[in-house]
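Thread amino acids onto this structure.
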């Protein structure tokens, strides 16, 4: 039965539905694989076999009936409070039902465990967590990406075929690129978010799927959103590229892989690549960070700031206190930048259907020193990644990262962005890209789990 875990999410669901797969045996195989592989990956921070088996026993007939999945440590479950990769006493949250949990439960899925994440979701690398860093299955000494580090490492590591992550400033797309997966950041407000500890989240964060290919992302994403994603032909799509800085300041191997994938996609769909510009892009990182920090501003009380857990990482303790010092005038300006960015994109999407550029400018860096070398010089992975990813969260548009090659043996991802509500169209394009490359890169597996 362990071989069934290597099947796609949709294939596991079909096997359970037809009776070819025994869901109880599938769950047992998943729990056994967690025991075997998680010591190296550290992708999963909690399992609860009795609760998982109860979910299976009570599972309704649905599109994922009996299929094991993971959920990021960002939402509560009826038997476990979320900890957000931080010391449990930091959030002081309670167990309970959350939107992603209910979506999975109602689809018949079985939650086999809670996946690791970067502490407080504060980095794109995944190299810091209260539970210890998750490890990239392609190279255990490299970052898996963040903040959805555990979901990505677990799927790439063959523990499950699909997991629920969260994307606040690129946190699904970065680990998808680092780990050779397909990851969808839905349009803001579409996917299940109830129960998230940031009750004031009205700006940036969404739940979304991390899977091995676009078809599985379509299945899991439709469950999180609560409606089916139509499957259509993206033929003739106009693909916009903004050369500077999104393409020009990337590692040569990453840029080459993405250029090849872009041309393959254009050929496959009979589309057109159009070079365009986006005014004001240099303000997007600062604006996105300021908008994001406003989401927990209500909790930045003196009592809270003076009672931060000593086990919380020193960087996050400093960042939390810094937020309390930021003048509201800066945040107000950030919201103005967001309005301008939305208008600029709306005008741009009147001329094109998709935007495309590398998901991250360089492949996964070492866990101990997450810096990258770009044409512009050596910088932190966070700075380079944020430039490529935050516009989708600042403006709310959907984005998907698709594996398109390797650079020095590590995965490379191409990011596709579309106008508000175009989630299905992005997956159509991702499907087309897979066809154009004969599924070469979505079928690649790390040597350790191949």
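Threaded sequence (450 positions):
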């Amino acid at each position: 039965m362990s071989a069934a875990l290597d099947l796609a999410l949709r294939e596991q669901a079909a096997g359970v539905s037809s009776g070819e797969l025994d869901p109880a045996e599938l769950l047992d195989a998943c729990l056994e694989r967690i025991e075997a592989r998680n010591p190296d990956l550290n992708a999963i921070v909690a399992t609860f076999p009795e609760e998982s088996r109860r979910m299976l026993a009570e599972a309704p007939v649905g599109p994922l009936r009996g299929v094991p999945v993971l959920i990021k440590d960002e939402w509560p479950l009826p038997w476990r409070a979320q900890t957000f990769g931080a010391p449990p006493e930091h959030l002081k949250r309670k167990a309970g039902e959350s939107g992603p949990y209910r979506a999975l439960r109602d689809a018949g899925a079985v939650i086999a465990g809670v996946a690791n994440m970067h502490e407080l979701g504060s980095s794109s690398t995944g190299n810091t967590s209260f539970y210890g860093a998750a490890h990239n299955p392609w190279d255990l000494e490299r970052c898996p990406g963040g903040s959805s580090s555990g979901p990505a490492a677990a799927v790439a590591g063959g523990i499950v075929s699909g997991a629920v992550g969260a994307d606040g400033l690129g946190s699904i797309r970065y680990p998808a690129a680092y780990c050779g997966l397909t990851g969808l950041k839905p349009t803001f407000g579409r996917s299940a978010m109830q129960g998230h500890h940031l009750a004031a989240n009205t700006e940036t964060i969404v739940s979304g799927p991390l899977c091995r290919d676009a078809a599985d992302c379509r299945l899991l994403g439709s469950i999180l959103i609560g409606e089916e994603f139509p499957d259509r032909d993206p033929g003739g799509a106009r693909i916009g590229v903004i050369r500077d800085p999104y393409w020009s300041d990337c590692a040569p191997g990453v840029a080459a892989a993405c250029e090849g994938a872009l041309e393959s996609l254009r050929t496959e769909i009979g589309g057109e690549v159009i070079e365009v510009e986006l005014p004001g892009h240099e303000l997007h990182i600062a604006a996105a960070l300021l908008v994001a920090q406003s989401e927990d501003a209500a909790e930045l009380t003196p009592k809270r700031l003076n009672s931060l857990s000593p086990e919380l990482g020193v960087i996050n303790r400093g960042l939390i206190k810094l937020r309390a010092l930021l003048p509201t005038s800066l945040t107000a300006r950030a919201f103005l930048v967001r309005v301008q960015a939305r208008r600029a994109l709306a005008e741009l999407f009147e001329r094109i259907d998709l935007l495309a550029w590398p998901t991250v400018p360089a492949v996964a860096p070492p866990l101990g020193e997450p810096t990258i070398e770009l044409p512009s010089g050596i910088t932190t992975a966070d700075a380079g990644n944020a430039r490529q990813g935050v516009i989708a969260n600042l403006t709310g548009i959907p984005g998907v990262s698709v594996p398109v090659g390797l650079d020095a043996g590590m995965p490379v991802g191409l990011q596709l962005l579309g106008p508000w509500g175009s989630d299905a169209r992005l997956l159509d394009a991702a499907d087309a890209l897979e066809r154009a490359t004969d599924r070469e890169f979505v079928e690649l597996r790390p040597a350790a789990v191949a």
